[in-house]
Amino acid sequence: MATDVLMPQMGESVAEGTIVRWIKQVGEAVDRDEPLFEISTDKVDAEVPSPVGGVVAQIRADVGETVPINTVVAVIDKAGEPVSEASLGSAAPGAPPTQALGVGTPLGAETAPRGGAAGASRLTVAAKSGRQYSPVVRRLAAEHDVDLALVEGTGDGGRVSKTDVMAFVEARVGKTSPSLALPQGRAEPMSVMRQRIAQHMLESRRTSAHVHTVFEVDFSRVATARAAHTGGQTPSYLSYIATAVADALVAMPVVNASIDGDNVVYHDDVNLGIAVALDWGLIVPVIKQADTLGVDAIDQMVRDLAERARAKQLSPDEGAGGTYTITNPGGFGSVMGMPIINQPQVAILAVGAVEQRPVVVDDGVVPGLRGFLTLGFDHRLIDGAVADQFVARVKQMLESW
Known about the structure:
Number of strands: 21
């Protein structure tokens, strides 16, 4: 029996994923739960395990292709069995058989869109041209006033992807802008993650009225607590800050909210997103119900999530559902940052380096352990007084630990 491999849903708001690489190729054996391919979404980069053991019989999505969730991207047959007719019958209606182990057309020879009925049901057929567009493509077209009938699709059967839409927009801008003499250099395409980060940050800038407030915090009491810590790894400064933030979010739920049209959504849980720097981009795994955890538990989760994010081992749920985000540029020595809000959240905290600095005490200058906390907030919902009260509460808890 053949088994269809579907594009997974990596988070409740994720509608599609992009194939970054195929770890297994047609004809290769794969064990159950062994990594089969790697994908990138708005929420996470992850390796997707094979649902069954067997032999890769078909690959239905090329590297770089973006497909809707629940679309068939590969077919696994049992080891030692010939490719079954069932594995060839799950293509989209009207599509010829895709690449198979010893059967069907060669890779790249397909002329019809890939994807099973589940994937096709998530596409909308345009009335004018009969072409199929994903929800993300239609949203981008609306944002940039693009007639999709004019966009040349580079996907299977001429399917239009997000990349195609943005390339059309950039080409249109280039035709109306004066040409610039650029220095010589090497041009490389952005990675899928980098493209998604760029899109997400621009969308946030267009959506939220960004304002920032900066507080200096005395971390000497936290340093004393860290020095006295026993029984396991000493929690990082970030973990103490996250604990204080979770407490403040419970006390001031408007900072833990989001905006939905003209409504304010107050979230029941405090789900802290912790930005993790990767060699190839940035990802934000989420600590669920952080307000119910102590500093040691939060520290353990921060370390675990960061390690698995760098190893591309996060599960779909671990990159979704965040209600507030903390980013830590101080880990690289940055004194402070002015962060961009992680939509649809309404606030984000940047943690600067915690270090010894000259401090005035009783008309004298002495060394003091200090760090800056910068709150970026959405002025559509949060006023300056509320933002300052929130950071002041975090500061008070840290300074009286």
